[in-house]
Amino acid sequence: MVEKPQIMTTDPATGKLGRSYVAHSAQEAHDIAGTVQAAFLEWRKESFLHRAELMKRAARILRERRDRYAALMTDEMGKTLDEGRTEIEKCASHCDYFAEQAEGFLAREMIDMGGPRAFVTYNPLGVVLAIMPWNFPFWQCIRFAAPALMAGNGAVLKHASNVPGCALAIEEVFHDAGFPENLFRTVLLPSRDINALIESDAIAAVTLTGSVAAGRAVAAAAGGALKKTVLELGGSDAYLVLGDADVKAAAQIAATARMVNGGQSCIAGKRFIVISELREAFESAFVEAMKVYEMGDPRKEGTKLGPMQSMQARDGIHEQVEKSVAAGARILIGGKIPDRPGAYYPATILTDVKAGQPAHDEEVFGPVAAIIEALDEEDAIRIANASEFGLGSGVLTRDLVRGEQIAAERLEAGMSFVNVNVRSDPRLPFGGVKHSGYGRECGRFGIHEFVNIKTVLVHS
Predict the structure, then answer these.
(1) Fewer CB within a 10 Å sphere, N or C end of the chain?
(2) 288 an active-site residue?
(3) Of 76, 87, 171, 232, which one is the catalytic site residue?
(4) 329-347 per-position pLDDT tens digit
(5) 442 counts as catalytic
(6) Dist. CA 71–CA 174, nearest whole Å
(7) In a shared domain, residues 22 and 54
């Protein structure tokens, strides 16, 4: 008898091994997808009222188990307990939102044809395969699952290999809420077996949140099978600090934007493009704002910065910093690996960042901010747009009319916020352009991604 491969977790705060889980084989994953498809064929017939009752129950379960699930995230990927609790509440609110709004978002829309009865109706596509990352191990999954299930679809989750407990816990939430037994299933599957699952006849569509490389691979496999995809990929979000900005307020927003989830977020602010005359004052204020984020035990209340998700990730971040410094960047704070166990990296600010340096050109997935000087507003916009990424962006200014115009018309990104850090919200469409992916999650646009937008015309 062939022994099944094990998935072993590691505590990023200590480096100690955690629990082990038995991985699924490719055939087992294929069979699971088949059971989800069978459950979907019945689920699609259920009323919005019934779906909403179960989704509201899922929200209650998430809130009841908030502390347990937050601790699980801490164990597997190092998220602080405070941020974990916030993430679970956000998931619950997301479930509530789509329970309340899905029927309206998917209501038939009448078309005036001057005679025949014509309308657009929205029907579920089938089983959606979700390939999800580790950095927001509950939120990323619930973000897709709540609208997908409310639209009448089924779901298969292939989560990141370092958060298997979180993956199974999400399946547990929907099971315990009373959803059909096989409507939402988790597969603990090696990445090498993903293509075969994408090609399965049981899978109707694929959504992925992850790296650009992963997005290319999944898009190629799904495209070869002619299956719909939504991709939310990397980001190197730029914030413009315009000449009229309140420097202290801008620095606080910048620190908040950079340090969400220890900097391990696609929509974390990463490049802070400052008009020349404000640079020195902004640097000073930014350093003070970042000093608040002291490294600490993620299990202790009030810890602002826990470990990175792994030693390998931490070392990769440090390599990007060192290469940037070797190419002319200057460290204002942080930038050194601490002498302590665990995958810790300090809050770091680099200045004199220019094209050709990793801090300028690449996504740095950790607590490292890059200050880039711009000659004027037009130069700042040019620098912001000179990136392969286009997920989020920000404008920091006292002139709200000008800030809105730049955000709405000039920045090449899927989201642009003025005087506040970019964040996801159930009510707002979320997604990017360029190498940050395509398609949208959240809001009316998100739930429409995985439905058949069908035209019906009835002629008398």
Answers:
(1) N
(2) no
(3) 232
(4) 999 999 999 999 999 999 9
(5) no
(6) 19
(7) yes
